[in-house]
Amino acid sequence: MNRIARWLILCLLSSPVLAASPDGVVAVSQPAAAAAGARILAQGGNAIDAAAAVQFALNVVEPQSSGIGGGGFMLVHLAKTGETFFVDSRERAPAAASAGMFAPDGLPMEFQKASTSGLAVGVPGTLRGIDTALTRWGTMKLAATLAPAIELAEHGFRVNRFLAVDIANDDGRTQLQPETAATFRPGGVPLAEGDWLVQPDLAKTLKLIASKGPDAFYRGPIARAIVQAQQRARSELGEAGRGRMTLADLAQYRVAIRPPLIGHYRGWTLAGMPPPSSGGLTTLEILKLLEHFPLGDAAQGYGFGSPKTLHVMIEAMRLAFADRAVWIGDDEAAPVPQRALLNPEYLAARAALIETDRRMDTPQAGDPTPWDASAVRPKPSRTREESLHTTHFAIVDRWGNMVSYTTTIEYTWGSGITVPGYGFLLNNELTDFNFLPSADAADGNPGANDVAPYKRPRSSMAPMLLLKNGQAVAAYGSPGGATIINSVLNVTLNLIDHGMTMQQAIDAPRLSVTQATGKVSCEGGQAFMQPHFSIATQDALREMGHAGLGDAGTDGCQDAIGSVQAVVIDPATGAHRGAADRRREGTVIRVGQ
Ligand code: GLU
Predict the structure, then answer these.
(1) Mean pLDDT of 118-141
(2) Cβ atoms of 394 and 75 closer than 8 Å
(3) How close is the Cα of 187 to the center of ligand 1, in Å?
């Protein structure tokens, strides 16, 4: 039994889903990756060191969701100074990318074909992001944080249910390229729960990075293999699907350290991810719209899960997602009117569109330009249903430093391309851009989310920090494409309006709408999702005109939305707690003295 496995058993025996500690806590979607983070905390590492170890371990044990072939946003909160930063390691378009590359004949490529081609692969940022965070705020060497992942890759681990399910339901992605199939479908047979998975190529790669540093990846042999893989991978698009990334793109990759987007909700403060993610801005916009309604007040017909509460949530989501589709992209390439979208007068006008007893017609994006003279009005761009994967974890260390990290290779299995000989998957993040360019010089449309060289595609990822009276009290986030925003929103409302604990807030059923047209998705299929949205409540929503819930008298709330991991610092006692999501194999480990 290897060290990670021993750790895991020890921790699982000693730890319920919810754990309290004056010391460090990790909350991760996968137990072996949680154990990797706990081991680093036990060795005296801080939250940033542990986050590095968790990410590398996730690359091994939850490879379908994130890894060094992808990108992400790491929120870092420093206890000593009270500062919060975001490490933006979002993938970037290569220099040779062009606005029309996903629509070479003027028609958008089919998503499945585009997203499994080399063309979809953005320049990966995860390793540079981790190295940057460790250099600034960590206490350990990169190599030490890689050690648990190297053991897991070299000696292997048991495939859990979620990995097995994702291999079985892979949308064809583990079958397209021979290297990916050889790892996850050896001899043509998909790995099943309980199978033992050893990844020698990945172990070799992680060891190379441990001994030579990130330049082995961005400038050395791994860089050459990445470039070849995305240029030569078999693609149903033929030549049009050939990747455009060069060695220069990898060598030039830079992370950005961003200040948080700050918002306030009913006396609490939130620090969220700014563009290129829509995560922080759209979550804050929905909260500010909902602040116009007394969501916590059951006496007025609100309260958790009442038809009135769910109705105004749906309407606020529809309004904010209409704005998101038009206004948000990579702020460095086309300025986003961030302050205007959160201007109280603008929001009051938007909130006035919500009627409490009737569904509004499909809302258009608002016009925040009167509150931001420099804003130009882009046209709505085509949006697609975004994928439901990725992963999120949260860590607090004994000093009270916190990390909340959403990390991805975009779709589950990313592009499906494993770098030959190196054992890791490449992302398909560039398909988060508009497929059809929307820029129009004639009317000043900047094409907020059109492809451009070096640009970052718009994201939904929303690692969040919640503060009360200037003190950080919780860090959380979720995977789930555009539904990320709504998972983070549901949890925030549950904490603030409905007075739930973090674990209750995570367990409670969620509701999500990601398009202005307003198809409602809601949860209830699993016993722990309490309190349930009753059929009578769903019927009341149907009567108001809401779509997506199925027939009257039936239970239309059967979805699973997101996977929230969180850490909490109790403001009264200073105790550290973690909470994890049973929608995957969420695991909390406390590291006590
Ligand atoms: N590409 C997605 C985004 O950045 C990743 C998140 C997800 O699909 O869960 O929003």
Answers:
(1) 98
(2) no
(3) 31
Say how far apart CA 567 and CA 580 lie, in whole Å. 9
Domain enclosing residue 431, as ranges: 3-257+385-443
Residue 580 domain-assigned (yes or no): no
For the annotated catalytic residues, the residue numbers are 390
Cβ of 90 less than 6 Å from ligand 1: no
Query: Atom of ligand 1 at shortest distance to CA of 90?
Result: 4
Atom of ligand 1 nearest to the CA of 386: 8
Residue 170 included in any domain: yes
Ligand 1 centroid, distance to 490 Cα (angstroms): 18
Q: Is 408 in the pocket of ligand 1 (CB under 6 A)?
A: yes
- % residues pLDDT > 90 (the chain): 84
- Does residue 223 sit in the same domain as residue 109? yes
pLDDT, mean over the chain? 92
pLDDT value at residue 444: 59
Q: For residue 10, what are the CA distances in angstroms to 15, 39, 116, 131, 209? A: 9, 11, 40, 30, 29
Q: How far is CA 578 from the centre of its chain?
A: 18
The answer, yes or no, to whether residue 371 has pLDDT greater than 80, is: no
Spatial CA neighbour of 368 closest among 386, 348, 392, 390: 348
Q: How confident is the model at residue 376 (pLDDT cuts 50, 70, 90)?
A: low
Any atom of ligand 1 within 6 Å of the Cβ of 459? yes
Residue 253 included in any domain: yes
Question: Same domain, yes or no, for 140 and 204?
Answer: yes
